[in-house]
Amino acid sequence: xxKINDLHVYYGGIHALKGVSLQVPENKIVTLVGANGAGKxxxxxxxxxxxxxxxxxxxxKDQDITGKNTVDIVRNGITMVPEGRRIxxxxxxxxxxxxxxxxxxxxxxIEADIEKMYGLFPRLKERxxxxxxxxxxxxxxxxxxxxxxxxxxxxxxxxxxxxGLAPLLVKEVFKIIKNIHSQGMxxxxxxxxxxxxxxxxxxxxxxxxxTIVMRGPGQxxxxxxxxxxxxxxxx
Length: 235
What we know:
With 235 residues, the protein is α/β, with parallel strands linked by helices. The protein has one domain: Rossmann fold. Helix content is 39%, strand content 26%. The strands form two sheets. The chain has a six-stranded mixed β-sheet, with helices on both faces. It starts with a strand and ends with a helix.
């Protein structure tokens, strides 16, 4: 579904991505793990054209989307749940969900999808008129995911969804990711919690200082001694 070929990106004067190539097959969870500063978030931003690509190309469903307008990329079916949630803190939960559907026109289907989100995240329904900035961290993450799903993506990119959450909430977020995937969603997941990410991933990539240094099935990487020492905190 998504293919990235020999991608080079310079970010803030740094050569952030150095010839990255990877694939995200349809209906799979692919995870990218690595330390802070490895270039994981830069990759997602490059796919969404939030940072310019110096060379290489990005194709989505056999169409070259390199450098395309970000709104058009969303309309084509790629949506990102950004790091730090980035909800609209001064808007209500319901208004945030409507913002997720900003590129859509069909009002009846949008309303139906809002109800679908409330079914997926019952706590959001209970707080539909609450100002989003007053939600707990876990609830804000649920809202960020629901808002992204409101654009009806074919590929959902998630940037550090468990960041800053308590362990119990981390488990809940990964349960939600598995639930969304079971309904047919293709997911590209960036996550510092390598143990949890590789456990649910069909395939994984390890990124170090802008370069893919290892790749393979999620469980295979989770069992790899080098990966365990570097990212899982185990020998």
